[in-house]
Write a structure and sequence with these properties.
single chain; about 475 residues; mainly alpha; Rossmann fold; Arc Repressor Mutant, subunit A; three-stranded antiparallel beta sheet; two-stranded parallel sheet; 19 helices; 11 strands
Amino acid sequence: MSTSDTPRIRTRFAPSPTGFMHVGSVRTALFAWLLARQNHGDFILRLEDTDQKREVEGSDAHIIATLNALGLHYDEGPDIGGDFGPYRQSDRLAIYHAWAQKLIDAGRAYADPYSQAELDAFREEAKTSKKAFLYRDHRPENPPAWNGSTPLRLKSEPKAYHWHDEVMGDLSTGPEVIDDIVLIKSDGFPTYNFAHIVDDAEMKVTHIIRGQEFISSMPNYLNIYEALGLERPVFATVPHIMAESGNKKLGKRDGAKDVLDYLKDGYLPETLLNFIASLGWNDGTEQELFTVDELIEKFSLNRVQHSGARFDVARLEWMNGQHIRLLSLGDLAQRVETFWPEEAHTANEEYRTHVLTLVQDRLKTLHDLPTLTSYFFTDPTPNWQMVDDNKQLSKLNRDEQVSLLRAAHSALQHTDFDANSVQAGLNQLLETTGQKPGILFSLIRLAVSWAPFSPALNDTLAALGKDRTLQRLEAAITSA
């Protein structure tokens, strides 16, 4: 927790606007957001758009929409401003050039005089010699003055490095991986390697959380920190999210789809935050369901695991069902407004709310609502194939099935239609017919709903009402 003696914790999420937001990107944002909120610090959104060729139009708006939809609201960003802007790297070119000039003045940066053909020749030479290509092996003795039309490179100082990572622990590397990397490209834009270090320093970022793919670049980052005379922030490297098979990094073919698509498919924002937080983190207990407030309270970087976390769609679906059950009926009613089947919009709100109470415990996603409720609003078409496909019901021939439905129709004609009276009537019908509940109740349920799932039979019939229930039983009998 921050005190008056420690700097205010400031974290950032710094994506490139090159496509949709997948779970890996959101996890990085979530961990940074949780750390900031837990310590009453600041969470920053910065758009790293220095690679203009890879930028996808509309991605910046998409990133903002995704964070807002998930409730990961930031304190500073390109659309809301802040004291350390601009928050879009393409608007910060003068800042990078000023920092680059400091390195030039200190003799720690120089213009790259080589053509692409010459660089390719150096690489081929290293390959032939079976050596790793290092640009510093070809550092020019008298480089020309940098005029902005050629790349600017760091004049590195190769050395061994040791550093601490809040997740990975104490790490080290030798001098052989340090190289004269590009700081400013020939188009005037900085590389990520240079720009993010400048930005984090200017924006007073204290904690940097990022993916495992950046860890190999850390020695060169540390070389730049030293060249600029900057103190190191706190580093935390999170492991990859793995595909369900567990043997490769999650990709688009494995379910790494746009996070907004999960919301459109009926997953709750709090489910996604809970699920994504659990991909590589736990609080050391058996607890699986966390509210957002609990995540803020319990999150810690030292509980993030070193190894990759497996993306499990079945667990995501289970977790979503559990979070749906935690919602108040009023909250759920608001969230499902766009998921009702078309026919439901002509029904009154009281009836829709009653139906919602019956299916809330069966919803795995909000997208399940039409399948679970459409028969409450419109008469379904009889489909006896569903009866024939039922293992228990198929033991009876059609005449026996119809005979049971006739008995049910007769018994229910003389039953009050509140849920308790309907249950009493159904129990009496079991005694009269001598059938098992698994057969009799399943047959009646199908005859009135023709749906793969439904709530408890007495609740379903009571909601439909006597007239509609009897009409559907007659329709089923007639169509047999």
